[in-house]
Amino acid sequence: MMKYLRFALLLLASAAIAGGCSLTGGQSSQEAKPNTWYEVADYIDGDTFKVKVGDEMEAIRLLYIDTPEINKSNTPAEPYGPEAAAYTQKLLEESGEVRLTFDKELKDRYDRTLAVVELRDGQILNEQLLRQGLAKVLIIEPNVKMENIYKQLEQEAKGNKAGLWNSGKEASIPEVHVKKAADTGLRLEVDKPAEVVTIANTTSSPIDLEGWKLVSVRGNQTYTFDSFELPAGGKVMIKSGKNKATSSETAQDELTHVLIWEVDNVWNNYEEDPAELYNEKNELAAIWEDK
Fold this sequence. Notes:
By secondary structure, this protein is an alpha+beta fold. The chain has four helices and 17 strands.
């Protein structure tokens, strides 16, 4: 909803007072959790709906996006507000259940759960609304994990003049471009069947990767680097999947390191699944195009 932008500063102030929520921040049994399918219980508008969690209903607010207002309390609907609400309801009805992914801050000031929403067919509801031109990107710190990716989707919808971008007069909120880092000298390669990502440092200096993020774009899965320095001319292999090695595995040579992504089946072997590497400033540092 476009009015959601007006509360951005209040959101941050509220978070500062109450303290940010996280996935490890003591969720009760009656709060939605990741990697769990929940029954859709009610429809509100383009970016808000409810799921059934235990014996209660929990409001879900789509992360990183904002859809136009629908008609409420005698306030006229904004352009494409009803279309966004109808599209969201259609996809949710077809799915029946959803699975949620979170960022750093779990709740907004209205106690709604902030989430990326996966449908049963593998589609991401947030992203589909952007592609259809029925939503704009809305980033509110500290939830910035998918900022650059979602802004790319918005730019594609603009180029296609989809939905609310059809007039050519709409502006993003705010109107900014995808942030890219200067050439880092890092090269990214993914062996999807083997579930192995290789990052090579082609420079003559070591690169501190602490706080950097490796993202599987389609799966919306993120590996965050702890304290790790990639030596000049060195490589690091990030392994995932059911057959991943143990953390004690030795590399082929002293310039190749092995790190373990403690999840299974990160990479989609049936559809395009690009990989992106972001630095500690959330700038796009390297990309692997899955073509």
